[in-house]
Amino acid sequence: MYDAIVIGGGPGGYVCAIRLSQLGRKVALVEKEYLGGTCTNWGCIPTKAMLTSAHLFSEIKDKSKRLGIDVSDLNYRLDGIMSHMNRTVTTSRKGIELLLKKNGVDFFKDKALVKDPHSVLLEKDNSLLETKNIVLANGSEPSMFHPFSNVEGIWTSNDVFKLNEMPSSLAIVGGGVIGVEFATFFSTFGVKTTVIELAEHILPYEDTDVAEEIKKALKKKAVTVLEKTKVVSVEKLDKGYLLNTAGEEETTIEAEKLLVAVGRRAVLSDDIKNLGVEIGRGVVTDGHMRTSVPDVYAIGDIRAGIMLAHVASYEGIVAAHNIAGEDLEMDYSAVPSIIFSSPEVASTGLRESDLKGRSDVVVSRFPLSANGRARTILESSGFAKILAEHETGKVLGMSIVSPSATDLIMEAVIAVKNGLTVEQLENSIHPHPTLSETVLGALEGVEGKSIHI
């Protein structure tokens, strides 16, 4: 009899299982395919491995001459890029397996079928495991719908990681995080790339000024960006695809490859539906990660909430502590959102678009072009933006467009999570010369006292 069985070995599931074991509980983890889930195998890790190659290529191509470095015959090898990606993925998988072993988690590579809230059938092994609690961490899959679902050969994000030849041209449907990151990768290596976004602007969950900065960066890479545009039909050609779009103007786009990157949907198998848990877009839980069925918890993408690996991991931590008899509740107020575009994007807390005419909030921006460290690395596109409560100075949110924005955002996460004020951050000495001083400049600007602009 297990204290808990966790179904799914992604960033939510394996973290939950390890923490349960650390809390002295007997736990099993069941994963039908690869440890690490979407993040390690078809998401965060392989994408960032590929983008690392793209960013290095861009740095050499765009900056070497100005930095006094002579480079001739610059080229790339796709097989080398993909080998780096595959090594990174394999190492991550093996690392997770080692962590499970080290922490005494029983790992079953099998398909789990939930029979009831206290028993799970291992399909291949045909054995029944009994448990006091079940944690559903079954994850998500790429969304596909009409008119794309009936056309052969269209890529989802999963298919890009099987790449063995660069296409001459690529149309990407969806200008969110996935679409922008892949547009950055392919355009860097000379692929004629078009991004088609239905919303008002690309990166629709970020502020307009953030999206505009990234749109400018993509256009410098010769990416065509179509916003407020819908694909109404798709035709498969002998060598590629023909897309008809409608928006401010009707457009016809021809591309060798077509990638649909409009997000992901929860994996809701029949055994989960038959379990009787409440289902909306995904499995519904309370803040303790409990479902409507006693002793059954759900974490990560199966909830169809904030579909981010780091959110899934913390939901796994919360579920584990509650199963262990503690009282821990999720707090989504300071979730960092990160995008590995070029420059990078990171945000947390409130966006400017959330303010809806509030007069009690001060918005302060500081340009990257005024930062000394940025000048040394030949970067000028971007900014840091602070949203702070006028009366108290409390930091409500931050957005950063900059190299290393995905690392710089942690200062804001800590501030928003803990209710810190602009004064507290400003009085914490920021090292010089660093990109973190862009954040300092925005903090100073809240009271109109920026020194360097």
Quick overview:
The protein is built from 14 helices and 22 strands. It has helices spanning 13-22, 37-42, 44-63, 78-102, 157-160, 177-188, 208-220, 270-275, 309-323, 372-376, 405-408, 410-418, 422-426, 436-445, and strands at 4-7, 27-31, 106-109, 112-116, 119-122, 127-130, 134-136, 140-142, 169-173, 192-196, 224-226, 230-237, 240-246, 251-255, 257-260, 264-266, 296-298, 337-339, 344-349, 361-367, 383-389, 395-402.
Q: Which properties best describe this structure?
A:
single chain, 453 residues, alpha/beta, FAD/NAD(P)-binding domain, Enolase-like, domain 1, 3 domains, five-stranded parallel beta sheet, five-stranded antiparallel beta sheet, globular, Pyr_nucl-diS_OxRdtase_dimer, FAD, EC 1.8.1.4, oxidoreductase
